[in-house]
Design brief:
The protein is α/β, with parallel strands linked by helices. It is 56% helix and 8% strand.
């Protein structure tokens, strides 16, 4: 099944048979950072060191965009490949052979494979799975729709995909897009429908972030984890009905794709789709990088002694 980005297994809400974390002995490398504990084979130490630095920044960014301090430590197990990843802990044995990573919420554990069949970037896989873990910890007993979880995780991974751009363009032009209500009450499982649902999910999360910024987004998340249904949280936060908010997002899609039916050449059509989405992706990436740099500066300032802040 070829899904946008990479289909990353999110087991955060799956009941686990035990709370015990029993990492296989072949993971003989150890690394401790401020909030992440790493296990890895020693030959992966350079990659683990690089990812550990990125992981700290990612965890801080995710926590701030969710409006919460990072809740506790995270254990990350970095494996050479999928086969070794599935041997890492007993609870990982049933992971599918195509999985590039997983978040095991009750263990507070993220699993990563350094090498995958699709050649995915482990840093993006890490971002995706940390996002799932953060949502799991914040949600507690409250329900967060799957489309929201997957959209937020893909947004954090910040990976542009031609397949996703093409899928979203097709859905918009053909009128086959799912309503938010439909996605909230029943995430599809057929391959083509899943691709479209993933593409819609991350695009709507991006729309919310751009509409009013991370502060409003985190306010909406706080309402959800306090028990508000998604529709109510959206309406209270953005001061508009969820249907109107959805229509605003759909209008943004139409503005991006209104020219598509005018094109008859398939090559020309998809070349333009790629160009438009690539430009939008680069713009969003610059904005997010500036926000991340600002948050890192604020975090460094908070760690200084009081007299040094003057």
């Amino acid at each position: 099944m070829n899904l946008p980005l990479v289909l990353l297994l999110a087991l955060a809400a799956t009941p686990l048979p035990t709370e015990r974390l029993d990492v296989a002995t072949e993971f003989d490398g150890r690394l401790q950072t401020r909030r992440l504990s790493w296990y890895f084979p020693r030959r992966l130490q350079p990659l683990a060191q690089d990812l550990s630095r990125r992981g700290e920044r990612l965890w801080s960014k995710i926590a701030r965009e969710l409006g919460e301090a990072a809740p506790g430590r995270v254990t990350v197990v970095l494996a050479v490949d999928n086969a070794q990843m599935r041997r890492a802990v007993p609870q990982a044995a049933d992971l599918p052979e195509w999985a590039a990573g997983a978040a095991l919420g009750r263990l507070g554990l993220v699993l990563l494979a350094a090498a995958t069949a699709g050649g995915r970037d482990p840093a993006r896989v890490l971002a995706h799975e940390l996002a799932h873990l953060a949502l799991y910890r914040l949600a507690g007993s409250h329900h967060i729709p799957r489309w929201f979880q997957e959209g937020f995780a893909q947004y954090q991974a910040d990976e542009w995909s031609f397949e996703r751009a093409r899928t979203l363009a097709w859905g918009s032009v053909s009128g086959k897009l799912f309503s938010l209500r439909a996605l909230t009450y029943g995430f599809p499982d057929a391959a083509g429908e899943v691709r479209l649902a993933y593409a819609q999910s991350v695009d709507f999360i991006s729309f919310l972030m751009e509409k009013a910024g991370p502060a409003k987004f985190s306010e909406m998340v706080r309402r959800m984890v306090a028990g508000d249904p998604l529709a109510a949280a959206l309406e209270e936060t953005y001061d508009t009905g969820v249907e109107l908010l959805e229509q605003e997002w759909l209008a943004s899609l139409r503005r991006r794709f209104t020219w598509v039916p005018l094109l008859t050449g398939t090559a020309a059509l998809w070349s333009l789709v790629v160009l438009i989405f690539l430009l939008a992706y680069l713009r969003r990436r610059r904005q997010r990088r500036r926000r991340l740099e600002q948050m890192e500066a604020e975090e460094r300032a908070e760690m200084l002694p009081p007299q040094s802040r003057q």
